[in-house]
Amino acid sequence: MREETPISAEKIWIHIKKYWWVCVLTAAVAVAAVVLDTWREYRANAAAALRDTYQADSMIYYPIETEPEATTLLTLLDSQQMIGRVNEALAAKGMEEFDGQTDKLSMAWKGSCFPITVISEGEERTRQISTTLTEALLEWAEEHMGSEGQIVNHTQVYPCLVQASGAVTVYPPGASRAVGLTFGSFLGWKKLMVICAGFLCGAAFLFVLLIFDTKLRTRQEAAQVCEYPCLGEVKRRVKDPGKEWAAINAVIGCHLPSSGGILYVTFSNEKAVNQAAAGVLPENRERVRACVWSRDRLEVLCKETPAAGAVLLICLNQDRVNQVETLAEDMENRKIPILGYVVTEG
């Protein structure tokens, strides 16, 4: 038995015409998922725009000689010691304590400069957190690390919007937070990748169907499966198939042995059997038999007219690889030589 399935351009095109809707369906599901996700993001961003959120930026300069010193300052940013100083300053102003869920701190290391970013609710509260934290970090560094530094950028506060994706949009001072839903909202890189992935899932399904499609679709595929010579081809759109069969039978009739006859056999195409039998020349009609494959039927025909040779009838778009192999194997088991095969279109 063959381990691979013959594949041709026509077989691929047949599957595309038959199953194109699978790719469209999976792509549509991906588009629906993107639309739903974008709408959820918009609703979340619209809710975030109603919050009074701000971003405060500041920067301290402190000479750093080694990387561990920089790591110490970065780690110190959200330590209990710094948060305690911040809470004391907030309490003195009658403001809520620092909340690790809504208040966000970050600091970068650029040479000997350390930019500090604070995101919180309330303009004055955000300013207070940033100012206190910047001064406390510089004081601790000068006290414990021995060098002198300075604040090079004092706290500046801007309105901001913390989006559902985690991205932060900063607005000019006094500007309002605006959220819109545009066509571009649906065309992010990740969203386009999701849509492409949906289409590719449909294409992968189509490819799997193609791999497991063992039907013979072209004469070239039949030649890959059947090692015997091709004796002719009868196309479905031909005006007079009888003439085609008569020509094929005339050629085969010239090679009829002195004893025995020719056996046409197909796996399932009754129409091809009838056409083959109808096209036999009158003088050879008694020596030619045609039938749909059946072991019992073959036994009867071989007893009536001992077959000196067999011709396989392969019906494209209907017969499968294993069926053609079964026909050939059955002929070989009966010691009936296979003269070749004729291709018809189903």
What is the compact description of this entry?
It contains ten helices and ten strands. By secondary structure, the chain is an alpha/beta fold.
Profile the largest sheet: 5 strands, antiparallel
Give helix % range. Answer: 40-55%
Form type:
rod-shaped
Radius of gyration: 41 Å
Mean pLDDT: 82
Structural class: alpha/beta
List the secondary-structure elements in sequence, H or E. Answer: HEHHEEHEEHHEHEHEHEHE
Strand order across the largest sheet: 2-3-1-4-5
Low-confidence stretches: none
Quote the distance from N terminus to C terminus.
24 Å
How big a fraction of the residues is strand?
15-25%
The number of helical runs is 10
Number of strands: 10
Describe this structure in words.
This protein is an alpha/beta fold and 346 residues long. It has ten helices and ten strands. The protein has helices at residues 9-49, 67-76, 80-92, 123-145, 189-211, 219-225, 241-253, 270-278, 295-304, 321-333; strands spanning 53-61, 104-107, 113-121, 150-162, 168-170, 230-234, 261-266, 288-292, 307-316, 338-345. A five-stranded antiparallel beta sheet has the order 2-3-1-4-5. Strand 7 (261-266), helix 8 and strand 8 (288-292) form a beta-alpha-beta unit. Helix 1 (9-49) runs antiparallel to helix 5 and helix 3 (80-92) packs across helix 4. The model has no long low-confidence stretch (mean pLDDT 82).
